[in-house]
Amino acid sequence: MRRWAMHSWLCLLGLMLSGVAGATVPLLPQPRQISVFDGLPSNRVNAIAEDRRGYLWIATRDGLARYDGVGFRVWRTGEGLRDDFVWSVHVDAADRVWIGTSKAGLAMLDGDRDRFTWHDRATWPEMASDDIWSIASTPDGAVWFGTSHGGLHRLSADGRMHRYGHDPADPRSLPSDGVSHLVVDPRDGTLWVGTKGGVARWTGDGFERLPIERLGTAMVDGMTIDAAGSLWMGIHGAGMVRHADGRIEQLPWIDPLLGDRALSMMLEDSRGARWLDTRSGMAWVHDGRVDDVPLYSTTSRGMVRPAWSSAYEDQEGGLWFASADAGLWHLPANWRNFTVLQRRIGDAGSPANAFVYGAAPSSAGSGRGLWLVGSGGVLDHLDPESGAVEHRLSAACGALFITGVIEARDGGVWLGCQDQLVRFEPASGRVRRWLADGSADAAPPGAYLPAGRTP
Fold first, then answer.
1. What angle do CA 253, 257, 259 make, to 5 degrees?
2. Percent helix, strand, coil in the chain (nearest 5)?
3. Is residue 1 part of a domain?
4. Domain shared by 331 and 417, yes or no
5. Is residue 427 within 8 Å of 421, Cβ to Cβ?
6. According to the 3-state scheme, what is the secondary structure of 343-381?
7. What is the total count of domains within the chain?
8. What residues make up the domain containing 419?
9. What's 405's domain CATH number?
10. Are 65 and 178 found together in one domain?
11. The model's pTM
């Protein structure tokens, strides 16, 4: 993708802990939600694709969106679409954008992004449905698209179209006329087809089905393929994998929060990490372990469990997760360079200050921690070894923000607020205050800022 603009996140503290000696805080991916409040046309996102120039194309239930890292351009019926409900989007090798709609058929936006070309039942008698659920292209230049009840169609490079349907009497026919997912093996261009009646691969003259008895159920909720050729399937409440050698088995990973098996493997990124759909939301597999991925919604102001529809890694290594009910979620390519501590309402383990105005080295605990102060009026202590945050002193200056903090040689912690100084002794919990009230022992008036800062 293009270099994504830095966003100012309310309720977020980002710390690069390499400056703290020996910091080994575990990596904690925290995807950022992008919603209608950011310009997305709908929080119901169905699919994602990327073109050569790094633009992200987003299929939503209220139009087609193009994201440049800063803002959105949206196509609806007033901008050339014939239907605002967009099920699927795909960019082919010629950099053409293919769009599958709910009622108007298949559209192609040319390389100049000026004109839509439409394929529908009114103009193409070969088509059996205008409800386009899935799109993919194969190395021979053909574009394949699956429909809700009209089977699978192949639009060849020379413009001819052929339809493939389900025939109960032919085991090499399509398993079902409802085609929800299409993926192409990056190694050899094999097309895999996920339907309401199971999974099959195109052999060139028919469809070779995976045994239903091995899959458990026939309904396919998700499908992706990794670099080794393993096909990962979400099979309506369970996760299955068909390895390149033909073995079929359940997903080996367990939801770290609920203890259930993962529902599907959504994405294997370029660094080998795998991102899972779980009953608790999301997890990732890395370094031989499975960890939960916290999902804090800024629109809901709390933790959410999105219904995932697709996932994608962009050209720069950024990760995108589309949901059918909670918008788009993004991890930038450099997310591993930072440990992010985010204020979460109702989570006592998160920082108490939405905005951090001051930080100072701490000798408490391991002696490698940080004192943090800010807009919540709370003195927090951060342990960089574990990432744990402890709230040591609440309402240190009453209802005022804390604007400065420093630890003295004797271990006492000094806090600065407007017209007020506070000394806190971590060992005993003793607190002493000086006010700018004109008394003999009064604090100087004004705001107290960290050293080197001016109002």
1. 50
2. 5, 40, 55
3. no
4. no
5. no
6. CCCCCCCCCCCCCEEEEEEECCCCCCEEEEEECCCCEEE
7. 2
8. 341-455
9. 2.130.10.10
10. yes
11. 0.79
Dihedral, 193, 194, 198, 203 alpha carbons, nearest 10: 10
Residue type, 141: G
My answer on whether 239 and 287 are in the same domain is yes
Same domain, 277 and 255: yes
Pair of tokens at residue 387: 């990432």
- Three-state SS at 336: helix
How far is residue 413's CA from residue 401's CA, in Å, rounded to a whole number? 16
Same domain, 396 and 407: yes
Walk along the chain (455 residues) and give the pLDDT tens digit of each residue.
Answer: 433 333 333 334 444 444 444 445 567 888 999 999 999 999 999 999 999 999 999 999 999 999 999 999 999 998 999 999 999 999 999 999 999 999 999 999 988 888 999 999 999 999 999 999 999 999 999 999 999 999 999 999 999 999 999 999 999 999 999 999 999 999 999 999 999 999 999 999 999 999 998 888 888 999 999 999 999 999 887 899 999 999 999 999 999 999 999 999 999 999 999 999 999 999 999 999 999 998 988 888 788 999 999 999 999 999 999 999 999 999 999 998 877 677 766 778 888 988 889 999 998 866 778 999 998 999 999 987 777 899 999 999 998 999 999 999 999 999 999 999 999 999 999 999 999 888 888 888 887 655 544 44
Decide if 392 is inside a domain: yes
Burial 392-405 (b: 16+ CB within 10 A, else e): bbeebbeeebbbbb
**Residues 101 and 247 both lie in one domain:** yes
Locate 348 and state its tokens.
């006592």
Tokens of 208: 């070779």
